[in-house]
Batch of 4 targets.
Target 1
Amino acid sequence: MELDLTDELTGVADLRHQVRHLRWFKSSFRRDAALIAEHHGVVLKIDDRRLTEVFLNWIEAFNRQKSYAALDRRDFTLFAAGLLLREFLRVRPVTEADPRPTGAAVGDAWSSSIVRFWPEGFLYTNYCLSVLSAVVQQEFGETLSLAKCADDLRLWWSYRENVREDPSMAIAFFDKFVGEEPNWRVPDSAESRAAMRRATKKLFAGQGLLGH
């Protein structure tokens, strides 16, 4: 999966805070939709009211669990991106407006087949991955590597079916796409994440709170 928006976002100063501003969030999301439309020949319609709802729901969910960033800031950054994806899939602000135009440009074969299969889900996921990739570069000096399964159409079938029943499952699939250990049981709980459990155990051990 190509994350074209990432190249543009890495030059945005203090990106992790910028994305928490509604106007910037909306404009960057619309930019990613335009890039995907251009590269894959899909026409996507964005409901502005619902897009605002996505943002407000995400900020509320983010603030409820942001204390866990003190345990493992990098893992909480991944989790926060997954929370955003959950809200996209819960509120669904995007619809495909028209069929693919004849002769439209297409990107790589795998991504194009996923876009044809689920254009809205591809956009939501691509945006969250693009923002995460840029933030990881800025904050941690790392290049985010996607797992091979991120281009596996069979996994996307499972992804779409599962999030229709429970949008929180998007967080677990998102972790899988970036090569992290998914929490399939309670994906929307920061404290239940493997990295957070390890960080908590290490903290308690350092304070002598664990039994010998």
Target 2
Amino acid sequence: MICDCACKRPKRTIVIWEGCAPIVTEAIQRFEERWHPYSASSRRYPIVRLIEEVIDPALATYMDTLPGSYANYVPGTGTGLGFSAIIRMVGLEAMERMQRQLLRQFIKTVEHKTTTDENFIATLESLTGLVWDCACKRPKRSSSTKGVNLNAQRKHDFCELCGNQTEFAAFMSTVAGQHINDVELEDRKKLELSHQYCEEHRPKLANGDWNPTYRQAKRSLTQFNIELSRLTHQCANRSKPHAMSGDELIDSYFFQLMLRLTLQSADKAELRNLARRMVNCKLSDTKKKMLVLKQSGFSQTEIGKRILNAKQQPMTRQAVSKALGSIREEFLLGSENFSR
């Protein structure tokens, strides 16, 4: 479960997980109180320096209270290098991916979580989120790379319809990493880069025609947001059904689905893409209920009697069979993955 902790400003950006170690929680709060002028691209206010000053000491103190085995899941711990030192070596985005992978490994290795384990997970989730927020944070006053006539203050994050970066975000990442030559730069400057959609979901194609992929995704935007909300809620509390769909069977579906996946709340891109695939393959709530009932041992005839069709009548066994047969393997539950 995540919570927004109180601070002097009316709106927080960095999410601190419930159960995060108090000393790290306090450090993150102080970090955000000071981080306004800092960014990864600022020379005067490099954000890694702020991490070194505020986060490193708190994390080191916290890790000293834990058994040595926990150090294997925090980069730098036990090697004489601080959290910020590893970031300087690999970069913020690589650090976020590294910490996320280590967190997944820890979760896989712990069969029965203790309170210490839960607090450790919440602390790592909070730190992973902080690193990601630092990677995304723009300078207070910023300008694009010389020769790039683009407004770097424009919104650039995920595509509205999936988990890919927007065209503008992808381009700015390339420019920031200097992975673009002059010819490509001139070509890209001629384009109107979208800060709302990725290349796949760009509203219009290069020839001026409407993009059918965009239209299809736009029509299902409401359902996409519903599925994303359910996935996010379930990730935030994996110990019980927590999708908050309002239906017990649907909540149970998301609970069982996430048990076999290693996604965390910080995996924003992956969760958004998963929600998009759910919608694209028409994984309806009715199909989710069928999967839960099948996993519980109900026959197709019994499932049909419990689930009503569009006319509010029991479904036939053939209709249930057809619906189950149309579901993609990645959305099956438990042993169903191997029994189709």
Target 3
Amino acid sequence: MSDHPHLDSALPGFSEARGIIKGAGDSVFPLQYKGSKFDFYRFANRFRMAVRFRGISLAEFGEETEAGYSALTRVFFVWSVFERYSELAGDPPPYRQLLSLVPRIKLAALADHIERHDPERRLFDFLYEQSLEQNRGFLDRYRDGDRRGVVFYAAAIRHIYVHGHLTAHPNKCAAGNVESICHHLADFILELIRDDFSRRLAVAKSGS
């Protein structure tokens, strides 16, 4: 029985990874990570929080608006944990290594979903206008056809939301569309992290 069922349920294989780290003298090297075991444990706990997030409760707000803010908050948590994970993986922006493992069809499906829910590019234009210069460059790549840039929607949402410029219906976008886009982004990123972790765990187990 797992000693950490709450973490294994959110990140399957956590206890096995912890055992590998302990067996390697508390080194994360067998998992091809950088940093310390504490960096890995902090990531795992933040990942669990992002996975288990179920929304926020706002008094005197409409249901659709509350759901929109909940979805924005979820992206905030998910992108924050992705940033921590990319540091562990030693893969800074534009996250070439992590994104290289994602099938093109999944990137295309996410991009298609976003574009169906933002047909007039109202959300894209708002995010682009409010983004940091670095993120604008990645959004430019996305606009020009590089589907890997779609993850930078999440980076832009996280930055703009945390600084108070993003509402549940930015630039007259329907809150329901914002909600759907945010949840698809969050699901995509969480799956990306799980898949990469599982791959590293399998490699570490095969070499032990």
Target 4
Amino acid sequence: FYLFIYFFQERIRVGKELLEAKRMEEENERKRIMALRKAEKEEEKRAREKIRQKLEEDKAERRRRLGLPPEDPSTAKPAAPVVEEKKSSLPIRPATKTEQMRECLRSLKQNHKEDDAKVKRAFQTLLTFVGNVARNPDEEKYRKIRLTNQSFQDRVGSFKGGIEFLELCEFERVEGSEFLFLPRDKVDMAVLNSAGSELDSAIKNPFFGVL
């Protein structure tokens, strides 16, 4: 009888732990999605601001060509130097790994913006590498990339920022070897999930890397 009670209580305890683990997982996923959406909105905002500035420059150029005087600056929207001063007084926060990944991808796209199709293919290839490791962390073949492989060079290696992104995912250059390798004990699911989210955003967000 006591044994039955013990097992019954144990099942309740395990059930509660599973529910709590599921709740935490859902909460983390919700936070990840919110952070991703925020990053996409910021990217879109920066892109729109760049477009607005370009329109202003074009407008000023048209006035110059027509022989019109420059637009009265007093009619323009006043700048907000106070905000900038306030920002500059804040302590500089070191970039998180996710921010480094985003900047790496943005830099890759800007450095190769003349070939959008190849950039997208590079992002998709990186997403495949990351996804394979996340799904099969114990499979060494997914944690090992031959740098001299022609397909890898065509898709990722020849792009400035491609290998750097993999290194942010904990891949390491093996000294005296032609491989990038991710040791099993350095497989970090949180890092891989962040990498996957950033790549997914870079692929789907039309404003990504505009600035």
